Amino acid sequence: MPNCDTPGNLILKVAVPVPLDRLFDYLPPLDLRLSELQPGVRVLVPFGKRQQVGVLMAVADNSSFDRDKLKPAIAILDTHPLLSATDISLLRWAARYYHHPLGEVLAAAFPVALRQGRPALLQRQPYFGLSPQGRLVAPEQLRRAPKQQALLTLLQTSGSAMTGTALSTYKSALKALLEKGLVAEQAPVPAAELALAQASLPANPEQQAAIAAVIAKLGRFAVSLLEGVTGSGKTEVYMQIIAKVLEQGKQVLVLLPEISLTPQLEQRFLQRFAVNMVSTHSKLTDKQRLQAWLSMQQGHSAIMLGTRSALFTPLPRPGLIILDEEHDSSFKQQEGFRFSARDVAIARAKGLGIPVLLGSATPSLESMANVAQHRYQLLHLPNRAGNATAPRFQLLDIRNKRMEAGLSEPLLAEVHATLAKQQQALIFLNRRGYAPVQICHGCGWVSRCRRCDANLVIHAADRVLRCHHCGSEQPLLKHCPACKTGELQALGLGTERIEQTLEAVFPDKVVVRLDRDTTQRKGSLEQYLEQIHDGAVDIILGTQMLAKGHHFPGVTLVAILDIDSGLFSIDYHGSERLAQLIVQVAGRAGRADQPGKVILQTRHPQHPLLDTLLSKGYRAFAQSALQERRQAGLPPFGHQALLRVQAGKAEEPQQFLQAVCQAINSLNPGKVQVLGPVAAPMARRAGLFRFQLLLQSPQRKELHQLLDSLLPAIYALKDAKKVRWSLDVDPVDLY
DNA sequence: AGCACGCCGACT
DNA sequence: GTCGGCGTGCTC
Per the entry, which co-factors are needed (predicted)? Predict the structure, then answer.
């Protein structure tokens, strides 16, 4: 077809990244080449007074919009679609399922650079490295790069199969070059021989069974749940399955809950696989993330490691999706397009016809229920590698016990005994700062945040009172601002205070505190972890982040200082999270020759949750928790959607939700229960008043049908303009 | 979401 | 007399 032809009646249907749930129609750009008009290309369009980068969804010959009001698109930005038809249908499905505007959902699939309209240009980087067989790998292009020529010659003369010192010389030379940026870690297009896994560890029978089970499913959709305690060798299972996928020339997407776990796994994969591998997470620059995305999208890399947002990376040769620590709530996006990376990963694999492997020591109740219903296959790794024994649990009843700043005397004695044996102790408290509130002994004044329904937390080292919800700060007070005379006291415990106590009680021991405040600086977490592994640390103290990933083989005593707050949570997810936390923290400890001990301080030693978990294990806990959920009609037996609203004045969210309730009543809600409107558990945050409405139904279909008709009605509400509202389908956090 | 337009209070 | 507050409306 000639390029100069007026393209007749062609109308471009474009998804634009704005919170409007519809497509926008455009005339083709003036310099159009018809070959470019494929769904999945980016289109630069005029949008009101500004320009937007949208995605072409379809080309039609008609528009419901007034034809002479249509504007021509400015340019088609890609010569080939960046998203395949399968990717687009997944994103369409996700937009429908989460009831989120398609344009914004599509935007979430692209790295920022592409959203901004940057060219989709993959810069292939020079590379050389060792093949698994010890052979030198270098693409031709490198030989022409004068800078590297000398070194390349040197390396080539070092022989094709290096061993011993030659190998380590080579490796350190390579490392130096990598640091100077003279070579990149990216290998050339993967050759089948390089994809083969090397030096695989001998798998135990359970590992072999798990590996075989997933390999048997390659090439079709299936979900497997790998339940394996810390140290049971899940990563080895992943790697042997990945090796098989690579052998078939396919790509693997590995999703992890957070950045800090990526380097660890990256290291192990780099040692094992000689294919191109990329990782992507929020600490990389936009350019790096673009390159990683394109490298997968263009089939140049075979493995991508990444967090939640990596899920939508296009895969021309999809083979397998692995989602590690599948129970982790950070797989659920908590703002904007609130998708569950786990659930969408499964939908994606279904569309691609490939298997998904979910891994966890403490699978989510949803996944356990799916196993019970034979939707997922359960693969179990019951044993810790190297015959390490499981830790012993001890409930420490602290009622009426003497406490030293949150640490009971029996616990301190255990810490003493552990340190005396030159072993490490790990102490967990999920509250950072010095103390959660400051109180006046004279008049009862407490340090409240002016903008939130929350107390200001004492941060002694920074000498500030800080709100953990909006970030506002004020200097630490010396005198009560209310009565001017009363003595101000720190009430309650945070990690900073425990650190002080531990340093006072164990003056000759090294205490390291790991929380957001001590690990904010880049690389500081890694530095601390190294010290801990080198045995330079006696007591490790910290929050949440201790529960994730990192294993501490020198630790034989784990103490969880306060589990009671998790026992009586208002959110029904609380008990599941507590059980997962206990098992995960416990998993940090112990080794073959020294079983670990886990002490849980509680004032509720008879609590049934603790009893089931500690006497019968996580699976039994999950069974009984699921039983409770079933009786209450809660997920996964019921289905929920939460409408959250906030605004500057308290009446606005209430009015809005009342209008929404009216709309629901006019829409025949059927069996869908409407709970609320109620004030959010934290009714005011960052100066905004927050309310919510929970919709719940025994049938997912019914809930979604209601939402389908409710959302247009909400968009049309006049009150909707006065508030900030968002819909959370399958909420995991009811706050 | 942006970004305009539009109609009422304290300032160069 | 204007600068600017944020209510309301629109984006093909």
Answer: Zn(2+)
